[in-house]
Design goal:
Distance between the termini: 73 Å
Oligomer: single chain
Number of strands: 24
Helix content: under 10%
Structural class: mainly beta
Largest sheet: 11 strands, mixed
Order of helices and strands: EEEEEEEEEEEEEEEEEEEEEEEE
Radius of gyration: 23 Å
Shape: elongated
């Protein structure tokens, strides 16, 4: 390989067999890859450089090729895909997620028209990482620990989500996934975060697992839910949680619900049946009390 002077004060190398790519040595003595040229169309990243593994796609690695890049092949040695690595590469329809991948940083794949399958060793998904991609199914591997805010926001081709055993999911992870019809929640979730499935208009059924303690603000607002049972473990339903669920006709309140926030059931115009197992007093026709659950 041949050396070039500097890139942001750091030395990098190139390979004749991988034109248009640069490789920078990391602190752990492995390489990070990035584009050194614009107008690349097809990229194949090697697994090693002079016998040293390539383990990372650098932050903003291919942003300069966002208008031309159509195909990327990544080696299984890749463990980290950096922030905005492929952000807005809107012609990128073919890309694989490597078997050893552990971290996908914020905005890594935002707005690229590719489908994905999450690899089995993945541990972390950053905010907006898969925002507005063409992903059709999400199955969280057992290794996954954290999913940051809006990670899959606006994925309008997404129809199925299985959240596995994940414990930490942040605001709006699946917000505005308008084609979503099937969701399996993690039994390890203690709180449903704000806006988790907001705008999931095709989502008609959902089982909330026992163990959940709070349902966050606008968590299911403007979704297509028709019936919902709040488990006994839930104490708090926050403001706007089921707001504008126009198809919601029936709800069962678990026995330990202590608080229903303002507008939690506002504009649920077909909600006519409420089974109240809690100690809250509900008055039919009360549009203000307990989030409007008894409006009708």
């Amino acid at each position: 390989f041949k050396k070039k002077p500097q890139l942001e004060l750091s030395e990098y190398v190139e390979l004749e067999t991988a034109p248009g790519l640069g490789f920078m040595l990391l602190e752990n003595d492995t390489y990070s890859v990035f584009a050194t040229e614009t107008e690349l169309t097809e990229v194949s990243v090697p697994e090693t450089v002079d016998g040293v593994k390539v383990t990372e796609v650098a932050s903003m690695a291919f942003v300069s090729n966002s208008q031309t890049l159509t195909s990327v092949t990544l080696p299984d040695s890749i463990e980290v895909i950096g922030e905005s690595a492929f952000d807005s590469c809107d012609k990128l329809t073919e890309i694989n997620l490597p078997k050893e991948l552990k971290r996908v940083e914020a905005y890594a794949f935002q707005s690229i028209p590719s489908d994905f399958r999450l690899p089995e060793k993945l541990e972390y998904i950053g905010s907006n990482a898969f925002n507005a991609t063409s992903i059709t199914e999400v199955v969280f591997p057992k290794t996954l620990k954290t999913v940051e805010s809006s990670a899959f926001y606006g994925c309008t081709a997404l129809t199925k989500v299985n959240m596995g055993s994940v414990e930490n999911v942040v605001t709006g992870a699946f917000s505005n996934c308008t084609a979503l019809t099937s969701v399996t929640l993690s039994g390890n979730l203690k709180d449903i975060p704000a806006g988790l499935f907001e705008g999931a208009r095709a989502l008609e059924t959902l089982d909330l697992p026992e163990g959940i303690k709070t349902i966050g603000p606008v968590a299911f607002a403007e979704s297509g839910l028709k019936k919902i049972t709040i488990p006994d473990s839930v104490a708090v339903i926050n403001f706007g949680a089921f707001m504008n669920c126009a198809a919601l006709t029936e709800i069962t309140l678990g026995k330990n619900v202590k608080h229903i926030g303002f507008g939690a059931f506002a504009d649920c115009t077909t909600l006519t049946t409420v089974y109240n197992l809690s100690e809250l007093t509900l008055t039919k026709g009360d549009a203000e009390g307990h989030g409007g659950i008894a409006t009708n």
